[in-house]
């Protein structure tokens, strides 16, 4: 009886659930609008009119976008940037964080102080641009990867997580003959899967949504990322997918093409996120409390 009473919802619970439901619906409505417009056939499409169920469905906008060289090139560039950038982010973040957890590491406190300084002070756009230029990375994908191999926030969180792993496990592994690299690959990494999943999602989303740095460092349109192309389509009324009048040849409303490009830009992250959600929630909490 007491268990049933403890589970009884209060007025605050109902208000809380109601508010969260309303916020969820409001957040989902723009995405629903984009999907519906992108799937509306050109014969029944009316600009700026929203229908829950279009009179006629069509995948022509998606078929057209996915057949254009500019979109395929941008999608390939963004996929390469996301995969390679995320992999390098994980390698540098976890190896450096693991090194900072070793108390016998030389200059450990000095390195940690420099990490914290970068968390507080940012050099700004111009020094970053001059650095990328002097390194010869302008108009290359390296300009979008090497300057952001890791960051102070990720290092601090991962370091805190790794410090929560019992030191007895590492000591026992070393007594059995494991080297430091053996401990890292055989003990630390398998126990760090929730954190790896969480930061994989963090880094992948950051690389997939790369826009400002791409605009700043890339001048070759063949190296544009997906977000730069989508921005050009959505905000530049005179632009099209190929640089010529191919849109008019297809007799498709430019609004449906632009909306479909936005949906395609969001789709990969929306598909991947549910598979990492469980590890993501666990990884965010791990390392927050020690002991």
Keywords for this entry:
291 residues, mainly alpha, MetI-like fold, 15 helices, 0% strand
How would you sum up this structure, described in words?
The chain is mainly α. It has one domain: MetI-like fold, CATH 1.10.3720.10. It is built from 15 helices and no strands. The longest helix is centred in the first third of the chain and has 33 residues, at 69-101. The two termini are 35 Å apart.
- The H/E string reads HHHHHHHHHHHHHHH
- Fraction of residues in β-strands: under 5%
Tally of separate helices: 15
Poorly predicted runs:
1-5, 242-249
Helix content: 55-70%
Main pleated sheet: none
Summed up, the domain count is 1
Instruction: Report the structural category.
Output: mainly alpha
Output the CATH class name: Mainly Alpha
Give the quaternary arrangement of the chains.
Answer: single chain
User: Which fold name corresponds to the CATH topology?
Assistant: MetI-like fold
The N- and C-terminal alpha carbons lie at a distance of 35 Å
Work out the number of β strands.
0
Apparent shape? globular
Q: Compute the gyration radius: what is it? A: 24 Å
Please identify which CATH superfamily we are dealing with. Answer: MetI-like
CATH architecture: Orthogonal Bundle
The overall average pLDDT, rounded, is 82
Keywords: Cell membrane, Membrane, Transmembrane, Transmembrane helix, Transport
GO cellular component, one term: plasma membrane
InterPro entries: MetI-like (IPR000515), MetI-like_sf (IPR035906)
Subcellular location: Cell membrane
């Amino acid at each position: 009886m007491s268990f049933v009473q403890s589970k009884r919802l209060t007025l605050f619970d109902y208000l809380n659930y109601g508010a969260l439901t309303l916020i969820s619906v409001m957040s989902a409505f723009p995405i629903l609008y984009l999907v519906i417009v992108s799937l509306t056939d050109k014969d029944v499409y009316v600009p700026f009119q929203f229908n829950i169920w279009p009179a006629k469905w069509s995948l022509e906008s998606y078929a057209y976008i996915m057949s254009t060289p500019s979109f395929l090139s941008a999608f390939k560039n963004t996929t390469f940037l996301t995969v390679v950038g995320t992999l390098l982010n994980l390698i540098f973040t976890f190896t450096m964080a693991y090194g900072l957890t070793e108390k016998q590491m030389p200059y450990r406190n000095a390195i940690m102080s420099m990490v914290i300084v970068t968390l507080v002070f940012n050099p700004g756009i111009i020094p970053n641009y001059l650095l990328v230029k002097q390194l010869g990375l302008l108009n290359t994908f390296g300009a979008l990867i090497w300057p952001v191999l890791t960051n102070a926030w990720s290092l601090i969180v991962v370091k805190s997580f790794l410090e929560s792993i019992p030191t007895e496990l590492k000591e026992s592994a070393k007594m059995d003959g494991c080297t430091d690299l053996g401990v890292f690959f055989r003990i630390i990494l398998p126990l760090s899967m929730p954190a790896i999943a969480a930061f994989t999602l963090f880094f992948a989303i950051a690389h997939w949504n790369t826009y400002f740095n791409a605009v700043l460092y890339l001048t070759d349109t063949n190296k544009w990322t997906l977000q730069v192309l989508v921005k050009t389509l959505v905000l530049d009324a005179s632009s099209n997918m190929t640089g010529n009048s191919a849109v008019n040849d297809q007799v498709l409303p430019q609004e449906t093409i632009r909306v479909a490009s936005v949906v395609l830009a969001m789709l990969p992250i929306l598909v991947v996120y549910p598979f990492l959600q469980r590890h993501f929630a666990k990884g965010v909490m791990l390392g927050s409390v020690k002991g």
